[in-house]
Amino acid sequence: MARPRFFPAIGSTQVLLICLFASLLCFHGVVSSSLQISQLDFNKTFFVSDNRGGGGENGAGSGGSRQTTMFLPLFLSPPRLNQSSPSSSSVASVQQSRRHLQSRRPNARMSLHDDLLLNGYYTTRLWIGTPPQRFALIVDTGSTVTYVPCSTCEQCGKHQDPRFQPDLSSSYETLKCNIDCNCDAERENCIYDRQYAEMSSSSGILGVDIVSFGNLSELAPQRAIFGCENMETGDLYSQHADGIMGLGRGELSIVDQLVKKNVISDSFSLCYGGMDFGGGAMVLGGISPPADMVYTRSDPARSPYYNIELKEMHVAGKALALDPRVFDRKHGTVLDSGTTYAYLPEEAFTAFKAAIMKEVHALKQIQGPDPNYNDICFSGAGSDPSQLSSTFPLVEMVFSNGQKLALSPENYLFRHSKVRGAYCLGIFQNGKDPTTLLGGIIVRNTLVTYDREHEKVGFWKTNCSDLWGRLNFSSLSPPPPSGMDNTNSTADVVPTLAPTEQPQYNTSEEVKAGQVTFYMSLSVNYSDLKPHIPELEQLIAKELDINGSQVHLLNFTSKGNGSLIRWAIYPPGSADSMPNSTAMVSCSFLIVSVYL
């Protein structure tokens, strides 16, 4: 049964009729292009009062209500070119830019924070909810769930940001129990439970909400499943970071979810900053790989983790005397961004340690910074990490295809925290476990591309602090995230002035819209409107003759007793673009009637 066309009364008898004028011009579009009102001024929106109804001056015939019609013109946003480009850029250059973008799906460029050795991890920022709530999440290729502490958590530590408050997000929903998930004891909600090797754990319920990727992202906010924690133990309880961003292989992985929605290609990249720098960059989605990127196969059938085909290790140009199969036992050689150091099987570590000791015999071996660990440390190497190559040898990893990844000293050493100019080996024996585990230290100042579509992993030595410039990323500006700022705040988003003229475009070719965004202004407080947001979504879907799942509330702004809501219409299912009948509401109106 269809939902009723009008909302039930909220406490006032005012009737508001909103008409969204949707004149979307034909243009040669890109699959990832966006049709939107990018700027809007409250003072320039025009209203027409309509007191028809035969009820005289007080509108008695319509129950004393006043009906107002509001027109919001929808402008086609120009392609976001380099801000330094002249405003009179030719149509040819615009079309060339569109052709350039047509070759790939959008990606989410994101910054990395913290330091591998000071914090033990790298984090990125993710915003969840409407309005968005910010979280610092450890990027972890060994985890398959993204989770944050929930406001209802009874056993969660004190972390960097406030806990997620589902009640403050108008777009949040719990994932209800079904045959495809583990359910709670009451069989009401889907739950998750993760145990880690260092004896920490996380558990909670699964929810669905809008996830935003930051102001560097070309990728628009997306609905995604994530964990709302109700219990943490071990390091997860005591760490400063809020939670985990799971990048592993699995249905709940943020990467798998975005790939399944067909909004990014099946790839992502991480680039960790070097010694003493920290930070770095990451990309969800594909990139144009550098010509000299080194590749190795990654077989998803080999293990559930991101494995690589390591066959040899060289120290100072000399191969370690090892059976190549030593790197292929149990899970093989695994890349794990959530692990700090590297761990080799016993025989491989013994050979590696001996080779390093032989090359640095002139240095003095000293005790490590923590007496609880038997670290192998050396003094007398100097304080400048850029000069370490003159003292410590080059290490190379040789893959099954013969390609080599060169490891500079910063990729296998960490700075001694108590002795100036001293360094310690960051590669250890993996106990009795025959798996080779390569943590973040191995890939500092290395762009690592996890090309899942082609079952390979690529490595490119670079300065991760300047990755965007070195990769020559497109200068197109990304769409703004859904009202986010630098805090976990629900502060209002202030709209800017509207354009005075409708931009002109080449209208000779067919439109292909990957997303339509528009604003809706309502003269009602958002707290009163919030319970009816799902109903409003269905009304919009009905008017456009689309599925309700295509309509998403991105953010809202409260202004006095009014609300400005930003909506997005996405293509159905896994489609890259939506039909012209949806994207082009040419010279027509979207009428939504609301009784308030």
What's the structural blueprint in terms of helices and strands?
Elements (H helix, E strand, L loop, with lengths): L14 E7 L12 E3 L9 E5 L16 E5 L19 H12 L5 E5 L3 H4 L3 E6 L4 E8 L6 E3 L23 E2 L7 E2 L6 E6 L5 E12 L9 E12 L1 H4 L4 E4 L7 H7 L6 E6 L7 E5 L9 E4 L8 E3 L1 E6 L2 E2 L13 E3 L6 E3 L1 H14 L4 E3 L10 E3 L15 E5 L4 E4 L5 E3 L7 E3 L1 E3 L6 E3 L7 E6 L4 E6 L5 H5 L43 E8 L3 H4 L3 H12 L6 E9 L2 E8 L10 H4 L5 E7 L1
Parallel strand pairs: 1-4, 2-33, 7-14, 8-13, 21-30, 22-29
Antiparallel strand pairs: 1-36, 3-4, 5-16, 6-7, 6-12, 9-12, 10-11, 11-12, 12-13, 15-16, 15-31, 17-32, 18-21, 19-20, 19-25, 22-30, 23-24, 24-28, 25-26, 27-28, 31-32, 33-35, 34-35
